[in-house]
Amino acid sequence: MTVPTAVRDAVRIYKESVAILTVSLAGGLFAGSFIGTEGMTETFASYPGLLLLLPAFLATRGNVYGALGARISTGLHQGLIEPRFGRDARLINAVAASFVNGITVSVFIGAMSWLILRALGRDSAALGELVGVTLVAGLLTSFVMIAGLLGLVFAGYKRGIDPDNLVGPIVTTLGDMFGVVFLYAGVVVVEVIG
Amino acid sequence: MTPTGSLGDWSVRGIVGTMMPILVALSVLEMGSGYVLHELERTFLDRPTLLVLVPVMIAMGGNLGSVLSSRLSTRLHLGTLEFSPRDTTILTNVVATLALAATVFAALGVTAYGLTLIPVVSIGGGMTLRETFTVSFVSGMALAVVAVVLSVSATYVSYRMGLDPDDTTIPVVTNLCDILGVVILAVVASLTL
């Protein structure tokens, strides 16, 4: 390959990816400005353990629903599932499994955050508070992620867009945005109940 | 992440059984970057602008790494990729990835600072434009270099060991970059502020 061709290729690759990365940047900035608000920094200060679990909580959204998206995408390509919400056994199983995974791992993260701070002899919020927050946040993100992911993937697929190219950006963007908002919602619920 | 072992298995038990150990292991690793945030809590809570950068630093390393890994993996499958100094495919992809990172992290620095100026958003701020831009750009480019090194070496390892990079490289690179993003941000922030 000659130098001009290599440069042209690099420009093409850049153009192909810059739009998707900009969408992800916008989602991340929304999440970031939510985390940076005064209400949220005060919440982090008054619930020790919440900042500790934040990266794991956000990253698991990507892993759980990225896997669901990859599975749905493969299922659509193989003709195993139809691009609509229905009583299809495979679709229901895939959604139920991602729900179980999402909730279990959320609760695990809340408990682990408490355990780590306890083991290090640091201040921490109560176990019930941290697990309560991640449980509520995990439940709410599951509903939004499952509905949003399936809705957008089905709509895209019907319009001839390869779901493989949609899943990654959808999961990152929705996961970041709703992940932080619902963590805050979790804190509000725990404060009201507690 | 592709649910490899259970691709033909659509039972709830099968999917959960395959994924749960991976999810648990990954979230334990992720607690590492959470620990860095927690240890530097005062640095971050006193400068909320740094917190604005956190989700993008978590997501973008994985994004850049997965775009590069998928491209290298596809070239490898097509037989158009060779691990030799004369092959320009890797170099072309690496240059494009670094240019994408430069664009995204320059935009992140400027926009994150801009957001702290909007009263309605009520972000405490605590950093100048110059500081925000420097921290975002330097840590972003460092993360991009890490993502490039990880993607290329992981693809090379999959290639030498005869593993399909789609099943190995991409999940590994994405998750490592997720974890290292916050760590790099924290290191750069402590060095420059």
Automatic annotation (TrEMBL), chain A:
Any one GO molecular function term: monoatomic cation transmembrane transporter activity
| Positions of transmembrane segments | 18-37, 49-70, 91-117, 129-154, 166-190
Localization per record? Membrane
Membrane topology reported for the UniProt record = Multi-pass membrane protein
Lineage: superkingdom: Archaea
Q: Which UniProt keywords apply?
A: Ion transport, Magnesium, Membrane, Transmembrane, Transmembrane helix, Transport
GO CC annotations on file: membrane
InterPro entries documented for this protein: SLC41_membr_dom, SLC41_membr_dom_sf, SLC41A1-3
Q: Which family does it belong to?
A: Belongs to the SLC41A transporter family.
Which protein is depicted? Magnesium transporter
